[in-house]
Specification:
The chain is mainly β. The protein is 0% helix and 42% strand. Strands 3-2-1-8-7-6-5-4 form an eight-stranded antiparallel β-sheet, with no helix packed on it.
Length: 95
Amino acid sequence: MNRKGSHGPWCPSKIVGNWNWLHDGSNVNGDLTLNSDFSVSHKNGWKGIMWKALSAQEYEIIFNDVKHKMIFDGKTTLTLSEPARNPKSIAQKIN
């Protein structure tokens, strides 16, 4: 069981860094920085922010007081699985 700030055995360095947020899956409308201390930085004024690994590919990122369950492709994209949206929101790694 992962607690706040716990990653279990999953903490790929690829997940730490700067990400563009695309709420509609196509257009950048925000940013996230996933920090190695499990916090999330941003420029949008969102609150309630932290992240943790649920598995090697699945992450929970909390910002704007919403839990976002994201699936990591292992490269440069996180795709929202919960809450369900159509089209799905994504985050794209920018460095």
